[in-house]
Amino acid sequence: MDPLDLLSGDAHTFIEEVWGRRIHVHTIPEADLAGLFDIEQADHLITQTAMRTPQLRLAQSGSVLAESRFTRQASIAGKPMTGLIDPRNVLDLFSDGATIVFQGLQRYWEPLRQLVRGLETALGHPCQANAYLTPPGSQGFALHSDSHDVFVFQTFGAKEWEVHDDAGAHQVRMVPGTSMYLPTGTPHMARTQATASLHVTIGINRYVWRDLVRRVVDPILASDALAGPLPADLFADPDALAAALRAKLAEVADAVRTSEVEPMLASFERTFGSGRQPVLGGGLLDRLDVTDLTADTPVRRRPGSTCVIRPDGERLRLLLGDRVLTVPARIAGAVDDIAGQSGAFTAADVADHLDTDSAVVLVRRLVREGLLEVVR
Fold it and tell me: What is the pTM of this model?
């Protein structure tokens, strides 16, 4: 399923008509939410893992609680570990009305890691995932707005939201299967009633035109042409100084107009396409199996993997999400074939493009790089 379909209904309609423009609420089949992050999984992270701050924080009545109230120290092999979550204190504070906030879940919870990677691929903008567990009759945060777009979907219990737009305040009741999209700057607050609530928030840190313009303008401003000192007796002739400044601004404008933006855009894409969170579930087992991989060993695209293929002279540049891999351009047919696979296949299946031994070498490499996984 397309991650946008999961969070917003029709993906094309969302991008063309909704994104950045208006609040949007829709219903997701609860089966589609299974395993993403529910109450049992929240319980597991709190009580059975060694979480540390800032992975988790607590808030109550609009204020973030001091970490000292729910953390402890420990050591492993004589080395101190600070900021460890004390599960008993966390549960006590939760019972007293505190909201538990799981921060950056895409970094340590695989289902949300894959969801975030899919959204980043679909939208071309960085994303992150938090979750908020609120006890009955409580409110974690006062009315506020975020500096990024958010998707919210409920996975347990219920929560009453107050959301503001140009038409005024709206009440939205979030129950399991409800998803809501809020554009950047939308004022909102939420409170539980008779039941506890767990919802996941996907933040979209949208790039803006300023991000691209700076990449063009900053090197021009750092050039030697603008490094010369201003004249002595600087303000003796304001008209002459203004004329000189206009001349420099004209030089900058000319340099901006004639800038080659294509290399900058390629670099921008490369930074985005190789700087995402790794998706490597099962990678250790693959490393153990890859040396025995043959032409008949079934493999498949790793769930959540991405592969953007860009020509680069006599090489191909593969943007794999968390890294860049370069391969000879002459094997483009095999790479395109492998990247387009939707099910299990073998190295022998790409024999139309490479001899069998070369196909095995390529498939082994792509398993090591995390694009493919061995089917067990």
Answer: 0.91
